[in-house]
Amino acid sequence: MTAGSDTVLDLLPMVFADPGEALARAEQVLGGRPAPLHASVAHQVIGIWQRDFGDLRLALTHLRRARLWAARADSAEREADVLATLGVALVHAGRTRQGMDALRRGVERGAGHTRARVLFRRAYAWWVLGHHREALEDVRRAIPVLRQAEDVIWTARALTLRATVHLALGSVERADADFTAAEALWETTGQEHDKADAVESRGLAAFRSGDVPAALRLLDEAEERYAKLGTPTFMLNIRRCEVLMAAGLAAEALAEADAAIRALDGIGGQSTRKAELLLAAARAARLAGEPGTAIARAALAVRLFAGQRRTWWETHARLVLTESRHAAGRGSGRLVADAAAVAEKLAALGAPAAPEASLLAGRIALDLGWTADAERHLAVAARSRRGGPPLARMTGWAAQALRAQAAGSARGVLEACRRGLDVLDDHRMTLGASELRARATAQGAELAALAQKASLVSGGPRRLLVWSERWRATALSAPPTRPPADLALLTGMTAYREIAARAEEARMEGRPVPTLEREQRRLEREIRSRTLHMRGETPEGGDRFDVGRLLARLAEGDDGQLVELAVLDGRVQVLLCGQGRVRRFEAGLLAAAETEAEHVQAGLRRLAHPGAQARLPVVEAAGRRLEELLLGPAAAHLGSGPVVIVPPGRLHRVPWAVLPSLRERVLSVSPSASSWLRARETAPPPGGRQVLVRGPGLATGGAEVPVLAGRYDGATVLEHDDATVPRVLRELDGAGLAHIAAHGAFRADGPLFSSLRMADGPLIVHDFERLDRSPYRIILSCCDTARFATVGADELLGLVTALLPLGTAGVVACSAPVNDAAVVPLTLALHKSLDTGLSLAEALRDARAALPPDALHRATGWAFTAFGAA
């Protein structure tokens, strides 16, 4: 490359506008016989590229050569600029003392405009090291000079850096002002990499202000911009891990951090970034319930940060290490002292995480019975309840609740828990995606547990019921935000159906499908990403649960009772609601009930096949043991009327009709008493349209559908090529009754991709969320449609739970694999009873009674459950 000095100097801004092109041109310059000045610039460009996107060792080699050529060119300004770049690279390599020394000499060698650029880079190094006050001082000195020189690019960089430092110190408003000013400047430049970085920084700002959907959207946009430039995104990985953890997606954050560490090691990348990624991985592992992994990652991060002289970061890593050791059961006086020292250091550094460390110290001290020490630390942590982002305020209220518990004030515990969960509710309702709402509840699990214990002590069964409801199925308390008319999302969902259908067809024909499966997974990630971007809409006038209202509604029925199962310290507490009162009974251990429920499920799977008659007594015996564990003495007080069961999320696999006391009665299940009340008070739509859907590939061909079509005059029948997802959704919207005979597939790894098989591919949960109003009653005569994934604190994600907040008042679905042929008489009998005006629960009871008494048909009846109240 032969060019004038100005052209070669243009390579420096180009490295952040078009990194690949800048690298190629710099190598071309060095391929000739460049003048010392030009050689210095070319080596610096290659050094910057390798520092940020490649091998840090190569970066240092090129930057040292750039400095030598600058000295030969006898240019103090050039040498100052290279020293600044070299200093930042040395800091990223963990050679902190050498790096800061190079930056100091750069400041001394430079003058005017060049010196301001060096000051900016020293400020960046201070930020990397966690010295925020020094960073602010250097950038404060640089910005006026850069502005006076009308250096748009470097002024925008300096504003972006200052905003990022403000965020680290918790000054969100100042950060927003600087980000806005920087963004306006970036729009006037062609610096595409810097623009992507600005979008990424705005994502961080959105997260710090509590807007998780906006943060996810902006970080995804930044990733798309980086991808077009072909540059790695390790800082973005770190920031996205932070947002994913706040959204309750800790396992995903851990996977992303570990993958980024492997990629960074593979290219010999920055030691500083590796330490930050290890810290992110440690935090994610702790939240994901993997304390051993968290301890290993955090301990390595501590060693790296200490070697890099990064006190701010080292202290945060020590916090995670101490939290993880506590989570692993290593409570001790030494651990209290460690947590207290970390809290003191974080406070001195002005870190927003200081209250979290004080809460940890107080919590461990309480476990050891050191009440005076606990009070001192918890009082400090409790100050954060008055202001700041939602999760910081929740930390403060958790500390206040623990203080009240230590003081023996049940009233104080309940007040603190109420205030803390109110903060979480406000935060949850900013989330539009039902998955994020459900997962966010994990952040209030401790407050909910404290409140339930305190309510049992101070207020008896009625107050325990109120607090059980306060924390039960909260993700279902309002409909998820309806997905926007996003063309890319709609296109992606259509492509997903087509690919999934092709993959299913290939499997049936015995053809390999890895390429199709990879594309299906890619489309799933894209769909999920776009739905997570949705911002929530806070419903107006949200109702608080009212025990009196519940008891009045129950009294309207035939002496019906509602059984809510709460879990305290691992044991099932049965709250029996009815006859104008709430009574409490203590049953068995939750863990034992879960094990027994799995035995029952296994038995039902065996009974779905002819010839398994001998297994029936085994399943019945397991049902008796399960009843003792789940209902205990309450079973003798159920009376003879209908029963509504409200189980915790971990008991969603229980086929309740197997329990002897529930087997022959009107039985329905609801995620919460509040959900049951809403269903009971939901009016059916005018007109009461019936929609009958028959999907492909059923062993019976959906034999009940033609019979039902003859029974319901004027019903819409969708089968064969008419049973496509768009057509089915259009007809289901606002229907009075829908019967869907289709293969169901439950996805434990992605419950919102659980599906019903239609003619053109899968009808997934995300599709149902697009309905304005789901059908008033739905019968799903296929396997696994009542299976759920447990997420968050006690939330369920699946097909049924997606329908209930959207206007469906009653669902009949199946929680186990069933015999297709045996389902036909069950569903026909069910519809026959519905014709007489019965509810779904009443009709299901009568349908079970009408089946032949053999094991196969009895198991089929037990596998189906009525949900809701219609």
TrEMBL record:
Record's protein name: CHAT domain-containing protein
Superkingdom classification of source: Bacteria
Originating species: Streptomyces fungicidicus
Domain CHAT: 621-868
Coiled-coil regions, chain positions: none
Gene3D superfamilies assigned: Tetratricopeptide repeat domain
A Pfam family it matches: CHAT
InterPro entries to which the protein is assigned, alphabetical: CHAT_dom (IPR024983), TPR-like_helical_dom_sf (IPR011990), TPR_rpt (IPR019734)
